[in-house]
Amino acid sequence: MDLQKIFGKPSITIGIIIGLSALAVMGQKAQMTPSVNIPVDTRPYPVAKGNNLYCAGFIQQSPMSTGNRIVGSDDEADKYNYDEHDFMYINMGANKGVSVGDVFSVVRPRGQVHSKWTTKNDIGFYVQEVGALEVISVKQEVSVARIKSSCDSFLLGDLVQLSSKRDSPLIEKRPPLDLFGDPSGKARGRVLMSRDGTEMLTRDFIAYVDLGSDDHVQVGDRLTVFRPLGKGNLFQYPQKEEVGTRDWGYQSEVYAGGKFSNQAARKSGDRATGNTVTTRDAKKGRPQLRKVVGEAVVLNVKERTATVVITRTAQEIHTGDWVEIQ
Known about the structure:
Strands 2, 3, 4, 5, 6, 7 and 8 form a 7-stranded antiparallel sheet that branches. The chain contains 4 helices and 17 strands. The chain is mainly beta. The mean pLDDT is about 85. It has helices at about 5, 10-30, 50-55, 280, and strands spanning about 45, 60, 70-75, 85-90, 105-110, 125-140, 145-150, 160, 170, 190-195, 200, 205-210, 220-230, 290-300, 305-315, 315-320, 320-325. Strand 6 (about 125-140) and strand 7 (about 145-150) form a beta hairpin.
């Protein structure tokens, strides 16, 4: 058989053979190349750590022990505020069973909490968690402690409390936030305030709600954050929400058209002979509607309040927004 007659000139034949060989090699490589499937990590993960876990603060109603406190510092002649690695004196020594290596938390009561966002009486006083001290030397009536961790500056007079290991609640991967979810029918409360005094909150912010152990709230509970529709907007009652029936200024009296504007609001009545229907009128008689704006998880529970961390948001969360146990 004359290959030249079939394939043409030898150079063309060689090119075709080389091209077919290259395609065969590429196909083999494609078959040999392993595919990598990265598994999706569905393991639960902690919702809070570090500052949010140990310095979230709380609102407490029951009295707090004030006997143990910071009474001095080796640098007190030079400064008033103290930070990590500074050495402090506490009025706890061998007489109170203190040992080298003991770790104490440091808290600072800030005052009674009064909020227009709750109907509960005497919800308690706000306690700021400042950080932790580790004892390095014990005397008879005092001990020397090094600031192990700080979330704010330490001050003389801050209270020293027994410290216990804290474990963050775990949360698993969740489906998308249901913005139109129905109420659960469980206990409801309000966002009273945030740790930093912020009035508009987002993810990982610490907030305090008026739901506590009295409402059977537990650490790890999820809360839906919502607000009733019609609340939270800057302009509740606009001065003028529609144009008049006809705007003046037509260039021609002849071609002015009818005495109405294509921007005018709807008239009432089945023959459009009544008053203009306003936004406020349109909302009358409708069932209560709500807008889901986020989700939070409970970190700490006191008598009438709980400390929460914002875990998901659909938009900014306001102090005064409602929360509901899921």
